[in-house]
Amino acid sequence: MHTALGESVSELIGRFQELKPFFEVLNATSSLLSIITWLVAIPFLILAWRRSQQVSVRVFGIEATFEQGLEAAAAIGAAAERRAAAGEPAPEIRPAKLARSLERVVAPLKGHGLRGKAVLWVDDRPSNNEFESRALRAFGIAVTLAVDTEPALKELSARKFDLVISDMARPSGNQAGYALLDAMRAAGNKTPILIYSSSNTVEHKREAEGRGASGATNNPQELIEMALAVLARQG
User: Fold this and answer.
1) Closest to 60 (Cα-Cα) out of 129, 112, 22, 14
2) pLDDT for the residue 225
């Protein structure tokens, strides 16, 4: 067991350049919490990588390279830490569960290619979503930013997006996320939209879905899972 783990570590170090984005994300989260989190996760990540035979893995049901999944996983952990540091309710991120998502190994068969998919992210503070955006970009998804409803509507009228992610409260209103959703539907735009705000209650989720959203959450891992699922269903 120790020999196998030692070989895994040696192989992982040998591919440092390919895994550089992952280490860059870890470097951006240097607190004791993130260090402990990723020390717990790394053994599972190594195991998943060996089982992947350096081909591909299945992350949240999406076929991807291991490096993509690893960078996305690191970004999700960093996003959770940032939200907790900002005083928001700490999202539950389980390193082992997150890492085991990478163990669902598949042969290089036809998968849901995400490269070329486009997401419009609407938030008056885009820097708050830096790591969540990075998790999506790790899969080759293009992320465009808009800071309020009107700029978002202009972007939507100018080009096609596969998904919209919106916060709820902005300077233009405490329910700006719903205002955007209503304006989109009134214009005949049926692009799926996810609400990413400070609430993760069952009532909030039901309300958002009742208003026509594809989902709502305050949890980075759940957000990425929902976003990838929506994009994968589009083929």
Assistant:
1) 112
2) 82
Q: Which residues contact 200 (CB under 8 A, 6 or more apart)?
A: 89, 91, 216, 217, 218, 219, 222
Average pLDDT rounded to a whole number, residues 203-215: 97
pTM: 0.65
Q: What is the DSSP string of the chain?
A: -HHHHHHHHHHHHHTTTTTHHHHHHHHH--SHHHHHHHHHHHHHHHHHHHHTTTT-EEETTEEE-HHHHHHHHHHHHHHHHHHHHTTSPPP---HHHHHHGGGEE--S------TT-EEEEE-S-GGGGHHHHHHHHTTT-EEEEESSHHHHHHHHHHS--SEEEE-S-BTTBTTHHHHHHHHHHHTT----EEEESS---HHHHHHHHHTT-SEEES-HHHHHHHHHHHHHHT-
Domains of the chain, CATH where assigned:
2-105 (no CATH), 118-233 (3.40.50.2300)
Nearest CA-CA partner of 116 in 163, 81, 183 = 163
Can you tell me the mean pLDDT for 137-155? 94
Higher pLDDT, 22 or 171: 171
